[in-house]
Amino acid sequence: MATAAKAAAIAELTEHFRNSGAAVLTEYRGLTVAQLTELRNSIREHATYAVVKNTLTKLAATEAGVTDLEEHLQGPTAIAFVTGDPVEAAKGLRDFAKANPALVIKAGVLDGKPLSPEEITKLADLESREVLLAKLAGAMNASLTNAVYLFAAPLSQTARVVEALRAKVEQEGPQTGATAEADAPAETAEAEPAAAEEAPVESAEAPAAAEETTTDVAEGGDDS
Fold this sequence. Notes:
Layout (H helix, E strand, L loop, with lengths): L2 H17 L2 E6 L5 H11 L3 E6 L1 H11 L12 E6 L3 H14 L4 E7 L2 E3 L1 H9 L3 H95 L1
Antiparallel strand pairs: 1-3, 1-4, 2-3, 4-5
Helix pairs in contact: 1-3, 4-5
């Protein structure tokens, strides 16, 4: 391959690594062109499946800052560059490998972190992003419904209590007013005797004050 062509290939692979949220290395030895085409089509919505040269891929991975794949770049290699849902891409690769054992999943990276074949299989067993979002939305709707119920129930109870009190006041209001007027004289009658009882005490104390005044004057007279 000419130097210019190699540089272009490296640049393209570097962009693939940089623009992908995940990448899965596979060995395709024994697969036919028709099978490779089938695999590409099965994961096209979520990933680009490309047959690569190991030497150029090592250079491109290094350029992109991906350093965990070099030891796996041996033999016939093809990479699934994942730009969509990594779970769905992993499912597609796993299912195809089950039907076509010649496809071997060797390693991968997800958000810059290395993945073993076992971890890629576990990733494939997860629910898709759409399913998880649907479940989250359902949980949020259920929570909102519960919240509305919790808020509405006390308010409705309060409304019933207020209405009952209002009806009671309308029905018993005049009686309550009459009772209040009847009680007023009693309160006044109780207040007046109390004042009468306290008055003599104040009068009894008055002469003592007069005596003190007289004494002060008398003492003053002695000094003069």
